[in-house]
Design brief:
Helix content: 10-25%
Shape: globular
Number of strands: 9
Radius of gyration: 13 Å
Number of helices: 2
Structural class: alpha+beta
Strand order of the largest sheet: 4-5-2-3-9-8
Length: 102
């Protein structure tokens, strides 16, 4: 089973972002904070330290237990577009979707 799923639209967006920032990978990590306890952190790297998902997303090893079974999607809405982590393990989530509790 894959630790993390990435939708086709998210993969396209992540690829565009790596090209735009001249990096190999977008990184996803989790840190303490946000209004629900933990928050998703996005960055870029050329030298991954964790798992590579869909050839474009590097998953921080410490984040794996928080995002196991999640899906990363790219959402386009009237108010803007953003990466959304759909986390079935989250017991709480803030309104903006940037932080969660387990």
């Amino acid at each position: 089973m894959t630790v993390l799923n990435v939708t086709d639209s998210a993969k396209i967006y992540l690829t565009e972002m790596t090209e735009q920032h001249n990096k190999k990978y977008v990184t996803l990590s989790v840190s303490g904070g946000g209004c629900s306890g933990f928050k998703y952190d996005w960055d870029f790297t050329d030298e991954p330290k964790g798992s590579i998902v869909e050839d474009v997303l590097e998953l921080d090893p410490m984040a794996e237990m928080f995002v196991f079974g999640c899906t990363v999607d790219y959402v386009e809405e009237l108010g803007g577009s953003y990466l959304k982590v759909i986390n079935p393990n989250a017991k709480a989530q803030c309104g903006c979707g940037e932080s969660f509790g387990v």
